[in-house]
Specification:
Two copies of one chain form a homodimer. By secondary structure, chain A is an alpha+beta fold. Chain A is built from six helices and three strands. The first copy, chain A, folds into two domains: 68 residues, Winged helix-like DNA-binding domain superfamily/Winged helix DNA-binding domain (Arc Repressor Mutant, subunit A, Orthogonal Bundle), CATH 1.10.10.10; 38 residues, no CATH class. Chains A and B meet through α1, α2, β3, α5 and α6 of A and α1, α2, β3, α5 and α6 of B. The structure holds a DNA duplex.
Amino acid sequence: MQLTLLTLAEPNRFNIVELLKKAPRSVSEIVQALNIGQPQVSRHLRILSEAGLVRARNKAQQRIYSLEAQPFQDLDEWFDSFSILWEERLDNFEDYMLDYKRKEDV
Amino acid sequence: MQLTLLTLAEPNRFNIVELLKKAPRSVSEIVQALNIGQPQVSRHLRILSEAGLVRARNKAQQRIYSLEAQPFQDLDEWFDSFSILWEERLDNFEDYMLDYKRKEDV
DNA sequence: CGGTTAGTTAGTCATGTAACTAACTATAGA
DNA sequence: TCTATAGTTAGTTACATGACTAACTAACCG
């Protein structure tokens, strides 16, 4: 998960992922969409691939990249675990904060 | 969101956030939990703070840091948008893939 | 085969950033 | 006011990583 975050933090890779969310794409399609050269895209795709975020299938000379579900699902769950911060039962959360403060004050 | 990702990608900051998810904490409590010095923790907290992920309140000489909800909520929503990758209606998703392939073949 | 299209790999360079030490600031208490 | 506690800021160094160019590999086609 740590690895997934690190991989997504790079802006070009973030953009590649956004692109692939809409549909699988070939390397040259990705190159056209971003503002960097083909070797750079290739390298970022390798990093994404090694982190398990994308997968490639061959289509003649083309390589069609698409997203893998798992790591995104993992992060989705992780961020869900923060919902305590905003969810309905704010009152309860505040109780818990107060409780913490009480503990501090000892 | 980009910024939030970048900020969270650093392992120590990730750990700090995990800690603060459980409860607000003072700097020294965080220092004890991690394996780096106080200046480093202080610096990471500043970065987290500038990215809007945490907030501090003063308590005598201590600074008590806690999480801000908003950026986590934003990322939670963003990752939700990937649920097309794994959710129930896989069949529909496959249709959509096939549709894409058809487009390719033209 | 020879060429063309599609993509990857290697090597160099520059930049950003994390860790460390040392010095500084602020609050509390005797 | 002097000292101790709690944290921040500054300056240096080292390392990781992204961009670029050039060279390489693979698949298809005439």
